[in-house]
Write a structure and sequence with these properties.
Helix content is 0%, strand content 53%. The chain has no helices and eleven strands. Strands 2, 4, 5, 6, 9, 10 and 11 form a seven-stranded mixed sheet that branches.
């Protein structure tokens, strides 16, 4: 199982970014996918989850209305569209998925929101 995030970077407040997570090594279309983030000195926070068919999404209150999770099962990729970014969104963002009893994580991508 491999999850590889990309798309992070340094942006100004109010800007947008789209994160991608390319999956391999498992039947992507059969599993829910999630994004979490961790800021320095803080606990990891679950940001968004999407079901395996993409019909249901859930968001943390802190990002609701600004972030959108989506997936392309043909490309085995999950996305996180982040709009109206704030300084408090600065964190390392991870995609992950629970396969049976194990949860697999990507290596993370840094998002920094600063003027």
């Amino acid at each position: 199982v491999q999850l590889v995030e990309s798309g992070g970077g340094l942006v100004q407040p109010g800007a947008s970014l789209r994160l991608s997570c390319a999956a391999s090594g498992f039947t992507f279309s059969r599993y829910a996918m999630s994004w979490s983030r961790q800021a320095p000195g803080q606990e990891r926070e679950l940001v968004a989850t999407i079901t395996y068919v993409g019909g249901t999404t859930n968001y943390a209150d802190s990002v609701k209305g600004r972030f959108t999770i989506s997936r392309d099962n043909a490309k085995k990729t999950v996305y996180l569209q982040m709009n109206s970014l704030k300084s408090e969104d600065t964190a390392v963002y991870y995609c992950h998925s629970k396969l049976g009893l194990s949860t697999f994580w990507g290596q993370g991508t840094q998002v920094t929101v600063s003027s």
